[in-house]
Amino acid sequence: MNPKNALDKLPFSSINKLNSLVENRRAYTLHDFELNIFETYEASMSVPLEFSELVIINMIQGKKVMHFQDKVSFDYFPGETLLLPEYTKMSIDFPEACMEEPAQCTAITIDAKKVDEVVNYLNEFYPNRETSTHWSFQLDKFHFSNSEELCRLTNRLFQVSLSGDMHKEALADLVLRELLIRIMQLQGLLVLEENTAGNSSVFTHIKQYVRENITEKLSVDKLCKRVGMSKSTLSRAFKTEFGISPIEFVIRERLKYAKKMLQVSKSVKEACFSAGFSDVNYFIRIFKQREGLTPGEYVLKH
Question: Which residues does the UniProt record annotate as the domain HTH araC/xylS-type (predicted)?
Fold first, then answer.
């Protein structure tokens, strides 16, 4: 089974062109960023790695075990992304890499001026009025699962970077800007999903209301009434802050609750209705679409 929102595999190096069997590197340098493709062909432990710029790391094939200073080590698989500040020291294990199934990952290093340019532009022209916060990367949310949008944009950035298109610099710039915005939005959503009892933003109130009424019918009208906002204003605020609609947020909260119920009750039907879904077939369909496996398969796995 393919991991959820895994990126497309990139062409591997020819064996006769390998400089190393561990973290063999190919680099594609553009004006504001560099795409590095790493391949490892043998099991290896404690491989050091560090970048001098902000870096987006994507696992394409295989498995890594990531070790950082002052952080718990974790397994790293396709379908996941890391966003790390400059000069972050890493130590990496490749427990399963071999010639038949090499590990492949990418590292997109981004010039600090480009990062500042995108963040400053957003803060000037698209300020977060509802939360009075500034656009920025949440570097404590450095490890996250790919969304469909992140998957699409990252694949597109790979495609442009490896192409011979005479306009590749302009095309890559557009894709990179959107990718950075989507990462900030996704990180903002991760922050919202945490327990932020001291946060009195509109979004926190909606989150609490949704969680307290997860079994009920929850319409945009109800959410608007709860926070005293019009439909258009609330929808625009969600789209700006997180890149999703209010109803999409409700669906994600329902699925998150359903997964907890599946682990406890092991009943697909009970999880469905407890999470506020009114139709079991729809629940099974959307669960598989979002999670990459059916509720029944999720129960067996957990």
Answer: 204-301
**pTM for this model (two decimals):** 0.88
Q: What is the torsion angle, in degrees rounded to the nearest 10, for the CA atoms of residue 224, residue 225, residue 229 and residue 230? A: 70
Q: 171-213, pLDDT tens digit by residue?
A: 999 999 999 999 999 999 998 887 555 556 889 999 999 999 9
Q: What are phi and psi of 121, to 5 degrees?
A: -60, -45
- The pLDDT, as a whole number, for residue 55 is 98
Q: Which residues of the chain have pLDDT under 70?
A: 1-2, 129-132, 195-200
Phi-psi label, residue 132: left if phi above 0, alpha if psi -120 to 50, beta otherwise:
left
**Other CB atoms closer than 10 Å to residue 218's CB: what's the count?**
22
Cβ pair 254, 214 in contact under 8 A:
yes
How deeply is 264 buried, as exposed, middle or buried, from its count of CB atoms within 10 A (0-12, 13-18, 19+)?
Answer: exposed
What is the Cβ-side half-sphere exposure of residue 119, based on CA atoms within 13 angstroms?
A: 14
In the DSSP assignment, the letter for residue 6 is P
Q: How far apart are CA 230 and CA 212, in angstroms?
A: 22
Which residues, 6 or more positions from 282, have their beta carbon under 8 angstroms from its beta carbon?
Answer: none
Sign, CA dihedral 214-256-185-138, equals positive
Name the DSSP class of 167: T
Cα–Cα nearest to 286, from 237, 234, 247: 247
CA angle 276, 281, 284 (to 5 degrees): 75
Using a 10 angstrom Cβ sphere, with 0-12 exposed, 13-18 middle and 19 or more buried, the burial of residue 133 is middle
**CA 62 to chain CA centroid, nearest Å:** 18
Q: Which element (helix H / strand E) includes 103? A: strand 103-110
Domains of the chain (ranges; CATH) run 15-193 (2.60.120.810), 202-301 (1.10.10.60)
